[in-house]
Design goal:
alpha+beta, Creatine Amidinohydrolase, four-stranded antiparallel β-sheet, 6 helices, 15 strands, globular
Length: 288
């Protein structure tokens, strides 16, 4: 039984926990920390490196920053990251075998810092990959963006799943149904569960202060899964590749705030936002 099965059973109808301003400051700090680890690992991925190398690097970076690798020991999971290659969807074990050109690897990681958790994931190409796999990764990231954009005050959790689903289905991808996004805060898995499919206008109403981990997992083939004999690694039932992307975010009155961004990524986002506003003002001025 994976941790998903365990936490899903525990969540039940538990209350969604809104975070205070002080809580959100701590969530920002841990989010930025784990984002830096994620981007360091992204730069390391190349043919010849092993997922164990990536795991060991992540473990060291998290600990050197004064944080704790959340995954280690979580319901018995033995590694700092989940490293899932090709047809492995999630919860993959780190291995010493080198990655090879044409692989894709999904890296899921979390850190606990000052009592709060940041959780993030990405799928990375190993060297040159096929156009088919490039599209799978791109669409998974786009689905994450659509899901995040749906995290607005007074929207509902079902709106998030629908935003992911409607985009993924345009490409005919299998949307993993056995594993979901989730609330996050002092614990890695808090209420609510956030499926990557659903009906708009259903489930819990979204409030300011809620923190979510949105994480679409898309398969090139069927949505069906199976778990390997290690009782953790989840693979596609048909052996087709899978991609995974995840951010931790906070719901604010001004819209969703992505917490798992590096300082540089935050700076670039601010610049793009300013440019967009400036461009609109210029257009209005020109019309006047």
């Amino acid at each position: 039984m994976s941790w998903f099965d365990r936490f899903a059973g525990l969540l039940g109808k538990r209350m969604i926990i809104a975070k205070s301003a002080k809580d959100l400051d701590k969530m920002r700090a841990v989010g930025e920390l784990i984002a830096e680890v994620r981007e360091s690992l992204r730069a390391m991925v190349k043919p010849g490196i092993s997922t164990m190398d990536l795991n060991n690097a992540a473990d060291k970076m998290i600990r050197d920053a004064g944080a704790i690798p959340t995954f280690i020991g979580y319901h018995g999971f033995p590694y700092a990251i989940c490293a899932s290659v090709n047809d492995e969807i999630v919860h993959g074990f780190s291995k010493t075998e080198p990655l090879v050109e044409g692989d894709i690897v999904s890296l899921d990681m979390a850190a606990t810092y000052h009592g709060f958790v940041g959780d993030t994931a990405m799928t990375v190409p190993v060297g040159n990959i096929t156009d088919e796999l490039k599209q799978l990764i791109r669409v998974t990231e786009e689905c994450l963006d659509f899901g995040i954009q749906a995290c607005l005050v007074n929207n509902r959790v079902g709106d998030i799943g629908w935003a992911v689903q409607q985009h993924a289905e345009k490409f005919g991808y299998g949307i993993v149904r056995d594993y979901t996004g989730h609330g996050i805060g002092r614990a890695m898995h808090e209420s609510p569960q956030i499926p990557n499919y659903g009906r708009p206008g259903t489930k819990d109403r979204i409030r300011a202060g809620y923190c979510f981990a949105i994480e679409p997992m898309l398969n090139l083939g069927t949505h069906e899964t199976r778990t390997l004999s290690d009782k953790w690694t989840v693979v596609t039932l048909d052996g087709m590749p899978s991609a995974h992307a995840e951010h931790t975010l906070a719901v604010t009155a001004d819209g969703p705030e992505i917490l798992t961004l590096t300082k540089e990524q935050k700076r670039l986002m601010r610049e793009r936002s300013t440019e967009t506003v400036s461009g609109r003002l210029e257009k209005v001025a020109g019309k006047g």
